Amino acid sequence: MDVRAKKLWYLENFNILKALSKKEMMKLNEQTRMRNCHKNEIIYLPYEKSNTIYFLKEGKVKISSVSENGKEMIHAILGQGEIFGELAIADPSERKQIAEVTVNALVCSIDAKAFSEFMKNNSKLNLSITKIIGFRLRKIQARLESLWFKSAPERICSFIKDLTDELGINVGDEKVVNLNLTHQQIANLTATTRQTVTSTLNDLEKREIILYDRKKILIKKYKEL
Q: Average of pLDDT values for 12-38?
């Protein structure tokens, strides 16, 4: 399979792009660029011009920001089949976050203005992207509310529960989330500390609610999270 055919195959397997006709898909394929990105490679930084949309074909990408005192907050860890940099559609000024590859990735990119034309001419695609933006804004709001109203252990439990709802796979009466996360990454995702994450996970394991290792989380008692 040549590069153009391979790129088209990947695009056709993106759920949000299934609204496009074959002709539109071919046109999109012509306007996208595909590249291999290595672990720890930075795709974009804050204050860079926000003019590109990205489709993640393989691997994982971390979306984060860093405070003035150097503390990292992870907003999301994205996997295969997800879109990022989508706010370039609504706000083409500057990036506010960092996009960094955490597992070797294959990424397609397209100019935001060009993608906006596809959205303008296809109401289903427009609705899909609008839903994604709305969903991510709601997650940000939920995280802010969590910071205000929940204790650190409660935030960690809520995070595991949300992961289970989004990515959990049924294994008999239990669920498993296959996601490679360190204690520090969970801390950065929940605005807690690594020590708090470690003690909370140890407590959940002691109570036989979960089993955790860096590659996966087995949720044994979902209702007790």
A: 85
Please tell me the pTM assigned to this model.
0.76
**Nearest-CA neighbor of 143 among 159, 128, 119?**
159
Inter-residue long-range contacts of 69-73, CB under 8 Å, 24+ positions, other chains counted: 72/188, 73/188, 73/189, 73/191
Q: DSSP for 160-185? A: HHHHHHHH-EEETTEEEE-----HHH
| DSSP 8-state assignment for residue 79 | -
Query: What residues have CB less than 8 Å from 14, skipping those under 6 apart?
Result: 55, 81, 83
8 pLDDT more than 70 = no
**pLDDT tens readout for residues 69-116:** 888 888 888 988 899 999 898 877 889 999 999 999 999 999 999 999
| Contact of 43 with 83, CB cutoff 8 Å | no
Please report which residue ranges of 111-218 form alpha helices under DSSP H: 112-121, 123-149, 152-167, 183-190, 194-206
Distance between CA atoms of residues 73 and 80, nearest Å: 22
